[in-house]
Design the sequence.
């Protein structure tokens, strides 16, 4: 039976004490997770490549100061999310390079390679994700796609768990709207929209975004 | 109507306790808005959890691994140079000692070795070379420096050590005294046992070559982590003065490397 795989933290230590292969093992182990997180955050293959490289280069540069206070994966996710934020901001600051179509948050994703996941539903979800504000998008992707616990998401993005819950809920609703899933009256339907004391469309997304806490600011590694 | 906003995400996740779930269910019976939100959120979650990973395109991490390789080679190069310099200094020190012994007289012996005597406070032989050659920096035992707590701090330590090496060389040239220079006279000397512990940690971290010249060892909090800061002097060997200072920071608890700094000694 093969040995159990080395822990990430042990690979870090081995690299720092001179084992060159240990870093390659870390990259190989996590590149898929990092790349797919970046692809979902940025929506473009080209940006996902850049963000993945930026994230791993940051890890390489800061590995010697990684003190193991957080799990390596938590740190890696944080560095990746920050790399995506940086990239998205750079892209916003250089709109002229993007052929003037930047007012639409949902940029056309790259032509679909023939993978099983590029069904029209997946593509719709990916495009719709780009219409959700970044901070909400990050929380949703980490929790609902990457299956990280709310506490871990909170540690990654640097907000309280309560803020994660709130962003998760508002983000899901924003995503549903972007996907064209509208609110319907209750099937049991006692109070119709006109008889309800609630506005038919619920509160605006923007107001909730403010209530959810600071939406700016890069998490420090 | 107040809505149980803080419970809705967990409601959709299915992680609410039974009692909280009942609270939400009761609310949903009377709130069309929250019911609709729950349906939207559930649809979004379902769509998200159906997303699958795509394979990483070829070549994405290639540049990263190449950079890692370059860094690794640089580090190895530095280590090899350090080993050569340290070996040169140790050989020169041994030669001087042999000459001194051969010249005879007890007085000569005593005069030639005060630095070695001063440096043997810890388990010097086990912990690698310390400065023993006349004119080299005297190793003062472990010190405490609460102010050295970050990268600029250790860079300052490297600079200070470089200045001290220059001062030591000048003192040697003037032949004013065979006593060690008072380079770090203000440093609080500490017990032999603490010095030994620190040296063990430095050795365990793997940064100290078998014959590196340790000139200073500092206890400090480095970026919040209790650490030892080891200062080595390095020279081209063959009795030449040190021309390089290298500082390593290692964590006290498991002796891993936290940071490094280096400083050229200006030619005298």
Sequence:
């Amino acid at each position: 039976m093969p040995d159990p795989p080395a822990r990430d933290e042990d690979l870090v230590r081995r690299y720092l004490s001179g084992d060159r292969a240990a870093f390659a093992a870390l990259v190989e182990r996590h590149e898929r997770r990092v790349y797919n997180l970046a692809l979902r955050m940025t929506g473009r293959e080209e940006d996902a490549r850049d963000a993945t490289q930026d994230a791993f280069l940051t890890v390489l540069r800061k590995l010697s100061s990684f003190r193991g206070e957080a799990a390596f994966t938590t740190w890696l996710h944080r560095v990746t999310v920050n790399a995506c934020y940086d990239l998205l901001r750079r892209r916003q600051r250089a709109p002229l390079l993007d052929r003037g179509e930047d007012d639409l948050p949902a940029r056309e994703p790259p032509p679909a390679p023939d993978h099983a996941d590029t069904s029209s539903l997946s593509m719709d979800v990916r495009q719709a994700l780009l219409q959700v504000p970044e901070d909400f998008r990050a929380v949703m992707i980490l929790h609902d796609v990457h299956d990280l616990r709310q506490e871990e998401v909170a540690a990654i993005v640097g907000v309280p768990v309560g803020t994660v819950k709130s962003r998760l809920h508002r983000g899901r609703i924003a995503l549903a709207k972007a996907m064209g899933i509208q609110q319907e009256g209750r099937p049991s339907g006692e109070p119709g929209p006109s008889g309800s004391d609630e506005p038919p469309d619920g509160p605006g997304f923007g107001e909730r975004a403010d209530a959810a806490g600071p939406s700016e600011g890069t998490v420090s590694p | 109507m107040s809505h149980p906003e803080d419970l809705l995400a967990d409601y959709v996740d299915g992680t609410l306790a039974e009692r909280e779930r009942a609270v939400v269910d009761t609310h949903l019976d009377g709130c069309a808005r929250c019911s609709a939100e729950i349906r939207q959120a559930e649809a979004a979650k379902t769509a998200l959890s159906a997303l699958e990973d795509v394979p990483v395109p070829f070549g994405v991490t290639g540049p990263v691994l190449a950079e890692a390789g370059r860094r690794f080679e640089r580090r190895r190069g530095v280590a090899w140079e350090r080993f050569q310099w340290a070996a040169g200094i140790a050989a020169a020190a041994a030669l001087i000692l042999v000459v001194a012994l051969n010249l005879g007289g007890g007085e000569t012996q005593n005069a030639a070795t005060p630095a070695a005597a001063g440096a043997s406070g810890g388990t010097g032989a086990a912990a690698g070379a310390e400065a023993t050659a006349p004119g080299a920096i005297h190793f003062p035992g472990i010190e405490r420096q609460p102010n050295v707590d970050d990268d600029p701090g250790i860079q300052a330590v490297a600079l200070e050590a470089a200045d001290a090496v220059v001062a030591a060389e000048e003192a040697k040239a003037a032949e004013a005294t065979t006593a060690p220079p008072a380079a770090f006279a203000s440093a609080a000397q500490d017990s032999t046992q603490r010095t030994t512990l620190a040296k063990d940690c430095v050795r365990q971290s793997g940064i100290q070559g078998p014959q590196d010249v340790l000139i200073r060892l500092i206890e400090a909090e480095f970026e919040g982590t209790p650490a030892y800061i080891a200062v080595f002097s390095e020279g081209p060997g063959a009795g030449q003065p040190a021309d390089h200072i290298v500082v390593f920071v290692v964590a006290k608890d498991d002796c891993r490397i936290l940071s490094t700094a280096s400083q050229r000694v200006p030619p005298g």
Observations:
- Chain A touches chain B through 66 residues (CB under 8 Å).
- The domain at 118-183 of chain A is CATH 1.10.10.10 (Arc Repressor Mutant, subunit A).
- The first helix of chain A runs from residue 8 to 16.
- Residues 95-118, 185-221 of chain A have pLDDT under 50 and may be disordered.
